TrEMBL record:
UniProt KW keywords: Heme, Iron, Metal-binding, Transport
Protein name, as recorded: Group 1 truncated hemoglobin
Transmembrane domains' residue ranges: none
Pfam hit, one: Bac_globin
Family matches, as InterPro entries: Globin-like_sf (IPR009050), Globin/Proto (IPR012292), Globin_bac-like_CS (IPR019795), Hemoglobin_trunc (IPR001486)
Top-rank taxon: Bacteria
Lineage, broadest ranks: Bacteria, Pseudomonadati, Bacteroidota, Flavobacteriia, Flavobacteriales
SUPFAM superfamilies from the UniProt entry: Globin-like (SSF46458)
Cofactor requirement: heme
Amino acid sequence: MSESLFVRLGSKKGIIKIVDDVVEAHMNNPIISARFTPYLEQPENLAMVKKHTVDFFSMGSGGPQAYTGRDMETTHKGMNISAAEYMETMDDIFKVLDKHEKDDQTKKDVLEILWSLKGMIIGK
């Protein structure tokens, strides 16, 4: 593939749409929703989480955005996220990628990123 993952995800506008849909999916997922629904009462914090997520995936997928948020371990410290919860987040992400009609190679590339992050998130 000659296009970067960033371009295949739809560049910044596409990643924003994907992040919005993923957050909505997480809020509707009974296994992990309790971690996300409190943000409904904190719109400023929700907007910041979404911005950092967009910037993180934009930079990590080859885009020009700089990520200025905290590292993954610091961000998830004290959350004690289980492997099952992490798998649920991944499932939601792949359902959204399917909704956005992303091809298999794009999904594989996203999987590689998500899998590389699991040790920095699970059980912290």
